[in-house]
Amino acid sequence: MTTYIDKINSYIKALDNDTLKALESISSTKNYKKGDLLLRQNEVCGKSYWVLSGIARKYYLNDGKEITTELYFEDDLAVSFESYTLQQPSREFIEALSDVTVSITHYQAFQNAKATHPKLLILDLMLAEYHGIWLENRLFQFHTMSATERYLDILKRSPHIIQSIPLTIIASYLGISLETLSRIRAKI
Amino acid sequence: MTTYIDKINSYIKALDNDTLKALESISSTKNYKKGDLLLRQNEVCGKSYWVLSGIARKYYLNDGKEITTELYFEDDLAVSFESYTLQQPSREFIEALSDVTVSITHYQAFQNAKATHPKLLILDLMLAEYHGIWLENRLFQFHTMSATERYLDILKRSPHIIQSIPLTIIASYLGISLETLSRIRAKI
DNA sequence: TCCATTATTTGACCTTGGTCAAATGTTCTT
DNA sequence: AAGAACATTTGACCAAGGTCAAATAATGGA
Fold it and tell me: Do B132 and A137 touch (CB under 8 A)?
């Protein structure tokens, strides 16, 4: 199945040399160790992180508990969307769940590049659209599926998530408690 | 408080004459009667509806029940986002909750116009960003607030919603049953 | 105005998932 | 290999909100 992310990837590949160069010239590669924070709560998310390898997540604190809102694998773009878009303090953290390598692009540099390279504007739009669609589907799942169904769904479409990530984090990503997740797993 | 939608509106106002004309030339005004469907499930959402007056909503069916996902008032853009963006069948309906007047723009005409008027691309991006931010906040509310808190929140920030819309619809928009909403209201 | 329809409330009971606490498993260190 | 620290499971109980059914409003037509 071709997904929208495939489309974005093929779009990037189809970018003309000049645009691609511009994008590269404002990006740099960086490594993080497992447990490192790429973004902290209350910081403005001034960079986007394209994951080259490893796993990361985004989460916020809700009376002391960490609620995971997104998981990032290779070729995912990690960013606190509202904070990045409006350049205002983030309520979320971004954390490396393993050693990760990312390609970092600064917000302002990308804004500037968009002005001179209109194709980057299209890329930006595609990424925003992709994220919006992803969010709509996540919301839809929460409203139409039980905790068990959501777990089975993730198990089916993204088994790598279950394998590589501690259950506490998966539970919060599914919007349930660790204990409930454990019981769901025991039943199956 | 200045919101992102204010920013979009001011951006539109700041559009140069030529761009504005292009936008107008591909848009047309239309009236719908209360109860009319602007978009049906399984149809491709080939148009966007800018609400000029009246109230509309977007909803889907979940085993027979209507779940409202978005409410539209004056100056809101009604669109089934995934269906519109990917030009694929919609799982949602768009319905007029009162007599409404909308400004309609066809998907393909807008795509064409974006090619010749780059500022429309920026507008498109802003709208997608706005929608993404809105979705993130909605998701956040569902995860961090109880049914009562969500009701009180809507009561505080959008009292017009409570006034003008039947409780069945508000309940489904809040993600709760009609009976629960009724009990919440009784307590306050 | 009176009826039919639709909207809202209330009651009784049930289900899902949460919380708190304790028991096991696992892993990583040193 | 022995702990310390973390991850997972299990048990007992609780609470929010759902469901089904019935009772009351409220409202738009004829």
Answer: no
